[in-house]
């Protein structure tokens, strides 16, 4: 019994981790004449709900092992050999179905983002201030250039949190993000659409500056238009790499802001990342993500920042600017940096 428990615990680990589990189970079920379709359904369920349903993992695992033991205890040895071999295989099979980011941390952040009234209130607060700023600018004497507001797209005007849900449930795939944007199905964030229409009604242009790439232009415009955003046109969308900043950093939005500023008077910038406002925020190694003092007074006036706890440049200082840390290493660094007094 003790051996069975040890084996089934390992089995649990394997069930949680291995992408090749379906193949293995088909083989085991064939040997033991078990119901393959039910087992596959259980494994699909386990993979979809991975860390969320640890109890379910244990339950299904014990049930499966028990069925095999009851069928013929002598076959347990053969099962152990198969599982031990498959564990070794799984160690070498890579991270095909591994969640893209730490599951529990992303779960809390996404739940807050999708379901809290506070998130909605913060977005409305941001766009309410944006309206006031537009109205205030309109009282000033007219300049030569027409007025414009520059907005980011992701987690500023469009809500991609369902993609984060997909990441948690299905893991990170090579073209996962592009598959999501190709659907052109992201919804407008609270207050975003109303603000954009308000600006349009006041004769203020909207320019969308995003770090989506050029291959996503068509689907992005389609998504913006389908939701009802004004200015969803080629000349009002600047994607990553459209105009590189002088330092060659295609992710920097500085060059694209300069392009808009060459024809329009930018009165307001709205985004969920400080990099959406000014290049001064881009080198977080220098300012550690803290606001340079000279820019502080611009928040709520020229810059409207919106909340995004799911991802962003704010993570970089936490992880010491390292890209390839394991989730365990990331958690350790986050704990080390948390203040307790
Ligand atoms: Mg964004």
What does this structure look like?
It is built from 16 helices and 7 strands. It is of the alpha/beta class. The chain has 2 domains: 91 residues; 206 residues, HAD superfamily/HAD-like (Rossmann fold, 3-Layer(aba) Sandwich), CATH 3.40.50.1000. The strands form 2 sheets. It has a 5-stranded parallel β-sheet, sandwiched between helices. A two-stranded antiparallel sheet has the order 2-3. The relative contact order is 0.10. The N terminus is likely disordered. Bound molecules: magnesium ion (MG). The site of magnesium ion has 7 residues, from loops.
Average pLDDT works out at 79
- Number of helical regions: 16
CATH topology of the largest domain: Rossmann fold
Strand order of the largest sheet: 5-4-1-6-7
Q: Which architecture name of the largest domain does CATH use?
A: 3-Layer(aba) Sandwich
Strand content: 5-15%
> What is the alpha-carbon Rg in Å?
25 Å
Task: Summarize the helix and strand pattern as letters.
Answer: HHHHHHHEEHHEHEHEHEHHEHH
First and last CA, distance: 48 Å
Count of individual beta strands: 7
Task: Write down the domain tally.
Answer: 2
Question: Can you summarize this structure?
Answer:
By secondary structure, this protein is α/β, with parallel strands linked by helices. The chain has 2 domains: 2-92; 103-308, Rossmann fold (3-Layer(aba) Sandwich), CATH 3.40.50.1000.
Summary tags:
disordered N terminus; alpha/beta; two-stranded antiparallel sheet; 54% helix; 341 residues; five-stranded parallel sheet; Rossmann fold; binds magnesium ion
């Amino acid at each position: 019994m003790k051996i069975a428990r040890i084996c089934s615990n390992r089995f649990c680990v394997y069930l949680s981790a291995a992408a090749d589990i379906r193949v293995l189970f088909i083989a085991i079920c064939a040997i033991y004449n078990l119901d393959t379709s039910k087992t596959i359904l259980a494994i699909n369920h386990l993979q979809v709900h991975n860390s969320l349903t640890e109890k379910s993992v244990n339950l299904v695992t014990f049930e499966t092992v028990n069925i095999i033991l009851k069928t013929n205890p002598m076959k347990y040895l053969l099962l152990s050999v198969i599982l031990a071999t498959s564990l070794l295989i799984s160690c070498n099979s890579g991270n095909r179905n591994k969640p893209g980011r730490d599951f529990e941390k992303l779960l809390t952040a996404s739940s807050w983002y999708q379901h809290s009234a506070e998130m909605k209130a913060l977005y409305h607060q941001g766009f309410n201030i944006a309206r006031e700023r537009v109205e205030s600018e309109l009282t000033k004497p007219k300049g030569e250039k027409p007025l414009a507001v520059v907005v980011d797209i992701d987690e500023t005007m469009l809500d991609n949190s369902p993609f984060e849900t997909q990441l948690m449930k299905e893991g990170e795939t090579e073209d996962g993000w592009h598959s999501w944007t190709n659907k052109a199905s992201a919804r407008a964030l609270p207050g975003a659409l109303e603000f954009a229409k308000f600006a349009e009604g006041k004769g203020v242009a909207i320019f969308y500056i995003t770090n989506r790439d050029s291959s996503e232009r068509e689907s992005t415009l389609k998504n913006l238009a389908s939701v009802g955003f004004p200015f969803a046109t080629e000349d009002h969308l600047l994607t990553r790499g459209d105009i590189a900043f002088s330092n060659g950093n295609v992710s920097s939005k500085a060059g694209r802001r300069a392009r808009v500023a060459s024809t329009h008077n930018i009165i307001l910038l709205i985004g969920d990342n400080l990099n959406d406002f000014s290049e001064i925020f881009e080198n977080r190694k220098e300012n550690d993500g803290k606001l340079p003092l000279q820019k502080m007074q611009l928040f709520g006036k020229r810059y409207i920042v919106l909340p995004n706890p799911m991802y962003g440049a704010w993570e970089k200082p936490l992880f010491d600017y390292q890209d390839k840390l394991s989730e365990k290493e990331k958690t350790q660094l986050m704990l080390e940096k948390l203040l307790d007094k």
